[in-house]
Amino acid sequence: MWVKKVSTIFIMLLVVCLSAVILSGCRIGGPTNEAKETVVEEEQEETPLATMEKYNQLEKGMSYEEAESILGSPGKPMTDLKDDSHKEVYAWDGKQTKSFISATFLKGKLVTKQQVGLQ
What we know:
Blueprint: H1 2-24, H2 33-46, H3 52-57, H4 64-71, E1 76-77, E2 87-93, E3 100-106, E4 109-116
């Protein structure tokens, strides 16, 4: 009689464990891939993108703040700001993959600019 109870308990535990394993592979809630893509697209629309027109407006001697105003968003720092050279390089992404503007500022003034793949 106790063997039958132990067998029943073992089978019930086995069913519960198998159910847990099967359900652990299922996702309940959370964003789908489609929802994630929508969020990424919305983020890209919010961030102004670098264009050739904006690149052409950048002039040597202008401040970082002026460049930021033209480009519509803060640049991504590409240099270590702890460096004592007073040289800072920032980048702004373009619409196309691997397209961007790079601007070098020395003591807060634009000294060089470069663009890759802008239209």
